[in-house]
Each structure stands twice: as C-alpha cells, then as structure tokens.
Design brief:
Layout (H helix, E strand, L loop, with lengths): L1 H15 L3 H20 L10 H17 L9 E2 L1 H11 L13 E3 L2 E3 L1 E7 L6 H9 L5 E2 L4 E2 L4 H6 L6 E11 L5 E11 L39 H17 L9 E2 L1 H11 L19 E3 L2 E3 L11 E3 L2 E3 L17 E4 L2 E4 L2 E4 L2 E4 L18 E2 L2 E2 L11 E4 L2 E4 L2 E3 L4 E4 L2 E4 L9 E4 L2 E4 L2 E4 L2 E4 L4 E2 L4 E2 L4 E3 L4 E3 L16 E2 L4 E2 L20 E7 L5 H9 L5 E2 L4 E2 L4 H6 L6 E12 L4 E12 L27 H21 L1
Parallel strand pairs: 1-7, 9-38
Antiparallel strand pairs: 2-3, 4-8, 5-6, 7-8, 10-11, 12-13, 14-15, 15-16, 16-17, 18-19, 20-21, 21-22, 23-24, 25-26, 26-27, 27-28, 29-30, 31-32, 33-34, 35-39, 36-37, 38-39
Helix pairs in contact: 1-2, 3-5, 7-9
GO cellular component, one term: extracellular region
Pfam families: CAP
Keywords: Signal
C-alpha cells in the first residue's frame, strides 16, 4: 500500500510538477476515466446477429469440407439449439451445461456443446471456430486418441452433426473464469464425441457429375439454397407437360405445395444423397400419418383407414375424425358402412340405437333416464321440449299435469295421476290407447295420431326427427355429446357426407396408402442447374417401364412418381453442398422433390391407360368448329324428331 502511495505521488509530480493542489483533481479524473475505459473494453452483447450466425455456419462447413471424409454432412443453423445455447450463456458460468439440459433439445435426443470465452475488445466468429479447430494437432485419427484437449475439434468436424445453434453473452463476471468477458456457447445436433467412435470416416473425395440424358454440365456450381419463383413455376409446368403426354384417363393436374417444399428443402440441406426416412415424409402439410392413424392438422383428413382426396372423403371398415366429427375411444367409428356414436349406429339414411346413448334434437339420454328399447320411452329427469312433455327438477309435466315420484304412470292402457285419471282436452284413454295432447300410446308403442311421433319406430314427422324402417334419421337434429351434430346440414354415412364445413363425399375416392406419405425424387449435379434437365432425367426412365406388366427393366421409380396420376402436390428443395455425403461428389447441387399423395404404391400402376377407342385424351379440348358441328347435328336430330311426331 505504501509503494502504491509513492507511485501515485510520483505520478502527480510528473503530471503536475509540484503544483499538486491545482492538478490533483485532474489526475483523479484521468485515473477514473481510464478505469471506465478498461471496463468498456468489452461491450455488452447478448445473442449473435444473423450475419454472425451465417459466419459461424460457413466457417464450420469450410473446415469440415477440408477434412478427407467420405461421410461429412453439411451443417445448418438451428433456432432451437440457438435458444438453448443462449439460455446457458446468459448464466455467465464458464462450464458445460448438464447432460440433462442437453437431452431432447428440439428434434435431437442429445446435443453436443463447445464453449469459448474472450475478454478482448471485439468478437470475431471465425476466430472462435478456428480456435476450436486448432486442436486438430492434438488428435490422432488412426488411434482415435488425443494427446491433449481435442474434443472441441472433433465436435466441429463430427460428420453427422448437421445442426448448430450458438449463443453469446457479455458477462461482467464470468463464474469459473474472469471478469468482463464474452461467453460463447455452441450446441450441435445430433451431438458428437460419442465414445469409441471417430468423428468421420476417412476417404478421399473426387469430383463427379450425374449422368443424365439432358442435363447441361458446364460452369462450376455456385452457392444456392432453395428454388426461386421462376424455377418453381418451371418445375410444375414441366411436370404437367410430361404428365399430359401419357395416355391416361385419370391424370390430375399438379400444383406447388409449400409444406412439401419446406420438407424437401430441409432434407436437401442435410447434403446426404439418400432418401429421407419414412418418418421424415409423414405429417407433411395435408398429408399426415401417425402410427395407425391418418389425420390432417387442417381438419380435412380422416383417422385410421379413412382417407381424403381433394374435396372427398370415404371409408371402408374404419375410423374417422374430421372437422367437427371426432373419434375418441369407442365413440365415433365406422364398420361396414355404418357409423356408431357411442353405441348408436348410422347406416345409409338412418340413425338407430342399440343399448346406447343419444341426444337427438331435444331428446337426450344419460344413464338410465331416456332410452328407446322395444318401442318404449323412459323419462326420468330428461325432457321433450315441445308443447306437452318436459322435465324440471326431477318432475314431468304433461300438459297441465305433473309427475313426481310414483304418481303418474301408465298401466293396462290407462293413466293414473296418483289414483286419478283425466280425459279432458289433453289426457284421456280410448280403446286401450292413451293420448297426451297430440301424442298417443297403444300397447307397446307411443305414436301421434296426427302423424308426428311414433316411438316404436322412433318416428317424428315434424321438422326434425323421423324414422324409416325402425331407424332415426338426423336432419336438423344433433347428437349433443362431444362428437356428432348437424347444423343446417345433412349427414349421410352411405357416402360419408356432411354438408357443413368439413366432411362430405362426391364420387372421388382414394386409398389410405396413397395418402400416408409423400413420394420423393432425388437429383445431384456439379454442373449448372436447369429445372427441365432434372425433371426430364427422371422422366427418361420411361423407356425402362413396362405398363402392361407393371414392371421395370432397370430403374424407373422416378418416372412413375413424376406421372403418378393422383399425386397432385409437389414441393422441391435445392442445396449447394460442398460435400454431398453418400456420393463421391463435392461442390454440387442436391435437389429433392416431394410429392403428395405419394406414388409408387406396390401392385398399382401410375395411371389408368385409356383404351384405343371410345375415349378422348383427358387434355383434348373440342374446337369451336367441332362444337358447332355437334350442336348442328343435335339440333337437326331434335327437329327431325319433332317432324316425325
């Protein structure tokens, strides 16, 4: 402390001479300003900019490409890993996050992690990545061992780590380290540094190009990710032009699908020349499949073995959940063309019950209170909200009469109210029949003499509920449970029709197999990229396909997917890949096109071939002249017929 005072005094003498009284404040100010400048040497920061994120990804891929690897995949930025990294960086503790913290991060079961800290005046992302990569000199590939620390390097070049996300935090105090530092965290998915595994498979890469019949190979490939609007239009147009060439009676038009595009681009960005997994091509936009169930997030596609095509839905011995109609446990399902709601079933035009529960219109059932069995109605606390019969607090009022406990009942074709009977305007007995208002009871059945209700056949001839062949049809009525109802619409389960917003059918049908996944075609080129070229390369496989035998003499699956008649959606992605894994190519374009509904279904042909006569080609339009001739001859025939008569 004494030494510091001496140094301070000498500093004052040097700066001020011996006039310390006039200069002391200035010296103090200088020292304080210098201290603040040191504190501000590292500027506050939280999170990387988009430009910095790009720099991190690019530098990783540059260094990964420099390895002599035969299986190195491209790495891309991942926002979930970024968030996870930033959360850990914000803790300002220079130590790795726990294994539990890095488990199940987004789509990754485990994420790897590299750390970095710097108290410099600025942060350079290239310096960070290069610092980790510099550990390469301490790694022995042949022995798969480190002479010193090398885990940061092996994570940087871990071949199948395809995603990275990083965070950075300015820390006034960085625990387990120093003060005034940047703390950088990068997490990788899938995580690397797996015990006893090398970071990549060693093997030299060679330049190569795809051998296609019409692709133009010339200038070196340039960086690219995704197709532009002009290319999208070209892909769709080329597909539809080639599809129109086929002698098909059922070929549908193909349109661009953004969900398929996003999914295809996601796979292309992995830079691995292999088909995506079945799991990767499920739950794609409107074409969704989960386990045994097919459904759509837009409420259009059914469940189980029900399927959806375009505007249409049908079923075959299966289950359904569409729009307002849902399947839960045993509640709503179909079997042999019938739908059961709870234990109630609907077939053709009619809804009927068998030991179940129902609420149709104003009639409801819960527990033992209201049900139909052998033509009888039992009303406990439930009601008919017409003119006559309703319930309130466990009582029934029939016209002006009420039921509470054991007082009102029918026995031997008579009604007793307590011990009394009534035969006025509303309640009377005649010829072993009981009439309550307009409602009559005879023997086992309750019906209306005016043609309004019959419970034996479950009939109501008013606006809402009626019966045919002992079954109930739902018009304006509803099932007031959780599942089935109709509002200003009609339900017909023969064709599984719902005239509301969501569920109905009209002629067009499609199987579940064709909807459960998206088809996929792949293409790679290290030359220039032309959309006609890669579509034509797939179509060129037509020469290897035998329609009559429905077989291929070589590869023809790309062709059959291009012309698969009911594949109506397409979405494609493209990625420039410094290294294209599962191939011998580098600096190449990797194209992925996905199709929905997917084609190439075993045992099926891609389209239905038109017969040699009797059918116009599907895309042939009559000219005005031809149409005029048709109209002329039709008119002449009508005139001739009138002359004869």
């Amino acid at each position: 402390m004494t030494a510091f005072k001496i140094l301070f005094f000498l500093l004052v003498i040097c700066l001020c001479g011996f006039d310390t009284n006039n200069c002391l404040d200035a010296v103090k100010s200088h020292i304080l300003n210098h201290r603040d400048m040191v504190k501000r040497a590292v500027t506050e920061k939280s999170g990387f900019t988009a430009e910095e994120a790009t720099g991190i990804v690019d530098r990783h891929n540059e260094l990964r490409t420099s390895e002599q690897s035969s299986d190195m995949l491209n790495i891309t930025w991942n926002s979930v890993l970024e968030t996870s990294s930033q959360t850990h960086a914000a803790k300002c503790n220079f130590s790795h996050s726990s294994d539990a913290y890095r488990s199940n991060v987004g789509e990754f079961s485990y994420a790897g992690e590299n750390l970095y800290a710097s108290s410099g005046t600025s942060l350079n992302v290239t310096v960070i990545v290069d610092y980790w990569y510099s550990e390469k000199s301490d790694y022995n590939y042949d022995n798969n061992t480190c002479t010193k620390v090398c885990g940061h390097y092996t994570q940087v070049v871990w071949a199948n780590s395809t995603a990275i996300g990083c965070g950075v935090q300015f820390c006034p105090v960085l625990a387990s380290s120093s003060m005034n530092s940047y703390f950088v965290v990068c997490q990788y998915g899938p995580g690397g540094n797996v015990n006893n595994l090398r970071p990549y498979t060693k093997g030299a890469l060679t330049d190569a190009t795809t051998t296609t019949t019409s692709a133009t190979m010339g200038t070196a490939a340039t960086a690219k990710s995704g197709f532009n609007a002009t290319e999208v239009s070209g892909i769709v147009s080329r597909h539809n032009k080639l599809r129109a060439n086929e002698p098909s009676t059922d070929m549908l038009n193909m349109t661009w699908n953004t969900a398929l595009e996003s999914n295809a681009q996601r796979h292309a960005s992995r830079c691995n020349f292999s088909h995506s997994s079945g799991a990767n091509r499920t739950n794609v936009g409107e074409f969704s499949y989960a386990g045994e169930n097919l459904y759509a997030s837009s409420g259009k596609i059914s469940v189980g073995e029900f399927s959806y095509a375009g505007e249409n839905l049908y079923a075959s011995s299966c289950k359904i959940s569409v729009g307002e109609f849902s399947y839960a446990g045993e509640n709503l399902y179909a079997s042999s063309g019938k739908i059961s709601v709870g234990e109630f079933s609907y077939a053709g035009e009619n809804l009927y019950a068998s030991s179940g529960k129902i609420s149709v219109g104003e009639f409801s059932y819960a527990g033992e209170n209201l049900y139909a069995s052998s033509g009888k109605i039992s009303v406990g606390e439930f009601s008919y909200a017409g003119e006559n019969l309703y319930a309130s607090s466990g009582k029934i009022s029939v016209g002006e009469f009420s039921y509470a406990g054991e007082n009102l009942y029918a026995s031997s074709c008579k009604i007793s109210v307590g011990e009394f009977s009534y035969a006025g305007e509303n309640l009377y007995a005649s010829s072993c029949k009981i009439s309550v208002g307009e409602f009559s009871y005879a023997g086992e059945n309750l019906y209306a003499s005016s043609g309004k209700i019959s419970v034996g056949e479950f009939s109501y001839a008013g606006e809402n509920l009626y019966a045919s062949s002992g079954k109930i049809s739902v018009g304006e009525f509803s099932y007031a449970g959780e599942n089935l109802y109709a509002s200003s619409c009609k339900i017909s389960v023969g064709e599984f029709s719902y005239a509301g917003e969501n569920l109905y059918a009209s002629s067009c049908k499609i199987s579940v197999g064709e909807l459960s996944y998206a088809g996929e075609n792949l293409y790679a080129s290290s030359g220039t990229l032309n959309v006609n070229s890669f579509v034509d390369s797939w179509y060129s496989e037509k020469s290897q396909y035998n329609y009559d035998a429905n077989s291929c003499s070589g590869t023809c699956g790309h062709y059959t997917q291009v012309v698969w008649a009911n594949s109506t959606g397409i979405g494609c992605g493209v990625q420039f890949c410094p290294v294209l894994a599962s191939s011998s190519m580098k600096n190449s374009y990797f194209v992925v096109c996905q199709y929905g509904p997917g084609g190439n279904i075993a045992g099926k042909r891609p389209f239905t071939k038109a017969s040699s006569s009797g059918h116009f080609p599907p895309n042939l339009s009559l000219t005005y002249t031809s149409l005029a001739l048709v109209c002329f001859f039709m008119s002449k025939a009508i005139i001739d017929e009138r002359r004869v008569t």
